[in-house]
Amino acid sequence: MNRTDRLLAIILELQDRKHLRAEDLAAIFEVSKRTIYRDIQALCEAGVPVVAMTGQGYSLPEGYFLPPVSFSPDEALLLILGSEVMVHNFDADYRTTTLRHSAAIPSNTFKYLCQ
Q1: Does residue 64 belong to any structural domain of this protein?
Q2: N- or C-end of the chain: fewer Cβ atoms within 10 A?
Q3: How much is the pLDDT for 104?
Q4: What is the span of the domain harbouring residue 101?
Q5: Which residues contact 97 (CB under 8 A, 6 or more apart)?
Q6: pLDDT at residue 25, rounded to an integer
Q7: With contact defined as beta carbons under 8 Å apart, do 109 and 74 qualify?
Q8: What is the pLDDT of residue 96?
Q9: Which residue numbers in the chain have pLDDT < 50?
Q10: What is the per-residue pLDDT for 111?
Q11: Between 3-16 and 22-29, two packed helices, what is the crossing angle to 10 degrees?
């Protein structure tokens, strides 16, 4: 996983959980704690309001979320079709991914794609 992907993934992990320690994030992403410290610093410098709490780890303020991603109808169709193939051949994690992608697609585009 490259750094940009990891930074986004860290934000998503922090959105899903109340607190994560550097050790936890390092284990999730299979990197060193020092790398996580640098990543958290980069997120802060980019304007992500990461809060560090001694003994508890890192968190994001309640209600913080990333702005929605916009997909063209063709991009959305590819995401949904690809996700459906993965869901039928792999595990429930891909179903969660499909739901997240679906949530990022405008409702009129999603209805069109489901026809």
Answers
A1: no
A2: C
A3: 58
A4: 73-113
A5: 83, 86
A6: 96
A7: no
A8: 58
A9: none
A10: 63
A11: 130
